[in-house]
Design a protein that fits this description.
Layout: E1 8-12, H1 16-28, E2 32-36, H2 42-49, E3 53-57, H3 65-74, E4 83-88, H4 92-100, E5 105-109, H5 113-127, E6 137-140, E7 143-146, E8 151-154, E9 157-159, H6 163-174, E10 180-181, H7 182-190, H8 199-211, E11 219-222, E12 226-229
Parallel strand pairs: 1-2, 1-3, 3-4, 4-5
Antiparallel strand pairs: 6-7, 7-8, 8-9, 10-12, 11-12
Length: 232
């Protein structure tokens, strides 16, 4: 419980009944929680509160969860903060769009509060600052990943990655030349059981390739198995 007391979560949903329930449960778990029922107040609140995780509803008037994801990715102060989307069961395409926009996970409404708290705990655990490794930098070609400063540069220019994309690239670089199965990536990057939907991985790999521009071909798809960093 003590490790959670410093963790801050911002919940954005236009349904007060939903936010009251989540707020009550997460406070009991020891988190510091702020709730917004008006998404128009999002940016000011997010930059002031600077949470460790966002929980965003997709279906909201004026500013929906997907638009908020775009705003998060566009702001250098927020882009590394993980996002969980709340979706209706039929919103498959919206879930995929959310993952493409940098969301780390989604959970369908109506949801079980225990499942939500477990998913929040998993994401915060894997995004927690790691103890410095002996080698603080990993380099392949002109891609440099700095584990101490939690940043990636390409040709000396900063590459803005989400927390999940950073961990995914780090794992592939640490295990360069070795194929990482989708199941292995789910366990090591997402801390999920292997029966979780693997489309999540493919979406994040595609986004990571886009951000690596001319070095995107370093991430090789091994058909029917998974991915690896292909040494130049």
């Amino acid at each position: 419980m003590n490790s959670q007391q410093s963790k801050k979560i911002l919940i954005v949903d236009d349904e007060p009944d939903v936010t009251e329930l989540i707020h009550y449960r997460l406070r009991k778990e020891g988190y510091s929680v702020k709730v917004l029922n008006d998404p128009l107040q999002f940016m000011g609140t997010a930059l002031e509160f600077m949470p460790d995780l966002f929980v965003l509803d997709i279906m909201m008037p004026e500013l929906d969860g997907l638009k908020l994801c775009r705003m998060i990715q566009a702001d250098k102060n927020l882009t590394a903060i993980p996002v969980i989307l709340l979706t209706a069961k039929g919103e498959v395409e919206d879930r995929i769009k959310g993952l493409e926009l940098g969301a780390d996970d989604y959970i369908s409404k109506p949801f079980d509060m225990k499942e939500l708290t477990l998913r929040i705990g998993r994401i915060l655990k894997r995004t927690a600052k790691q103890e410095p490794a002996e080698a603080s930098q990993l380099q392949i070609a002109d891609i440099i990943l700095d584990t101490d400063e939690h940043k990636v540069t390409l040709d000396g220019k900063l590459v803005e990655l989400t927390a999940t994309e950073f961990k995914l690239l780090r794992l592939l670089m640490e295990r360069k030349g070795r194929v990482q199965s989708r199941e292995n990536l789910l366990v090591n990057v997402w801390n999920y059981d292997t029966d979780t939907e693997t489309r999540t991985i493919d979406t994040h790999i595609r986004r990571l390739r886009e951000k690596l521009h001319h070095r995107s071909d370093l991430i090789e798809t091994v058909r029917g198995v998974g991915y690896r960093i292909n040494l130049p």
